[in-house]
Amino acid sequence: RSVSRRLACGDVEGRLDAIFGRVRAIQAKSGRFDMLLCVGNFFGSTSEAEWAEYRTGAKKVPIPTYVLGANNQDTVSYFPDVSGCELAENITYLGRRGVYSGCSGLQIAYLSGTEAQEQPAPAHSFSAKDVAELKTSLLATPNFKGVDILLTSPWPRDVGTFANSTGEIDTKKCGSKLVSDLAASLKPRYHFAALEKAYYERLPYRNHMVLQETTQHVTRFIALANVGNASKKKYLYAFSIVPMSTMDPSELVKQPQDVTENPYRKLRKEAPKSKAALCAEEEPACQFFFDLNKHQGKKRPSDGKDRGDSQPKQAKKPPQPTGPCWFCLASPEVEKHLVVSIGTHCYLALAKGGLLPDHVLILPIGHYQSVVDLSSEVMEEVTKYKAALKEFFRSKGKRYVLFERNYRSQHLQLQVIPVPLDLCTSDDIKEAFIAQAQEQQIELLEIPEHSDITQVAQPGTPYFYVELDTGEKLFHRIRGRFPLQFGRWVLASEALLAQPQRADWRQCAAQRPEEAAQARAFRREFEPFDFSLRD
């Protein structure tokens, strides 16, 4: 199967050197991407001098780049042909509206401009007629089930309904109703938009009515910020995708645990159903669960027993260790002088031979091998400890990096290591992990922020997993040998903490009185943030 690696980008606003410089850096570290898809304002009011260098070929574009058209009168002149054309070598204007089909079979639907407020629609706007014609051209296709990607500049109106918070953006007022209508009909697996100078990754939403229609794929809506914004909001999004036309239908329709109701449900009820739309609903949708992790979506249970049903999991007692366990709290082997907080289901302990003095472990009290084995109430307390540690470390000007290695280990250990905020950004941390992984031929992939590790790994699957306190995650499914100290080694490297001499915990072990003193100091500082003392 053909896996495409794509980049999507928010408003470039004429900052061509900035975006192409960033793409070069990413490709140097993470390998080649197939294309860059740009939504929002590609040109800005001061683009001319920079643009001339690319238009004439004096500067080269490092990746095939596809852009949407103007969103205002000022930039209309940059797009000479409304039906789409090459603007410079490796930069293609897709056109006013349509479908781009790559040789891999990937279908990308696009709509340029903003919603027209007047008739006739100006050159930088789209009308209800444009949307209707684009819908009709696709819905009339035999067995139409959706498109792989939808590109629009405006957000869809009401995309925040049933969703995680959109921050300062009020989706009941912002965005376009016509774009909502288009997204509801075209059922993209990914929908990218911009213009609001904000980054927002919505929880995935379903494209069918539960118990009323055949299960269909989910949609992930991602809004991207403007290139080089001062707030360092995310403007570039990397993802891997297999064309829906080549995927196994049962794999395509798997539902992630955090899936929500369709935000445009009301629209769908109101819209008259065309014959083509009915056909699409009657057939099992040929779609998706997990693009971003390439082939990993198929590893989830496919026997219909959805892991989202937590009742049986809650009833299950943790398995007993086969021999002595250093981390079961009831075990005599536990070094209790290192324990700094005890909850109902989990506890917190300083790491023995920690990379830093405030390197801590989140551990289940009972014997669980990995995060994917945890019952829902244990998982809930793990989440509370993560939130408390985030608040604690942020109060000290630090961000945490958490990792788990479910490989040659008996008892779950979530390693939590603080990194000074002024030392590196979350992107620097991710890039350091990805670069070091590549050197070792380890495929470390980014997974969507609101996804859960249980969606990509079944119990018993060996894996390595990194999570930042922003919610960003990296995942590697271990299929052979794996360096046991990998997570620690990356954090100790020159790229991050620059303490390579502390990469091996055995070189850092202290005497018991010193460890006990460190634990007392940590306990005292952490106390205002420790929910276990209040619950």
Automatic annotation (TrEMBL):
Residues 300-310 have a biased composition (Basic and acidic residues). Residues 295-321 are annotated as: Disordered. Signal peptide: none annotated. Residues 314-422 form the Cwf19-like C-terminal domain. GO terms for cellular component: post-mRNA release spliceosomal complex. GO terms for biological process: mRNA splicing, via spliceosome. Residues 440-531 form the Cwf19-like protein C-terminal domain. Transmembrane segments: none annotated. It comes from the Eukaryota. GO terms for molecular function: RNA lariat debranching enzyme activator activity. SUPFAM superfamilies: HIT-like. Belongs to the CWF19 family. This is CWF19-like protein 1. It comes from Atrichornis clamosus.
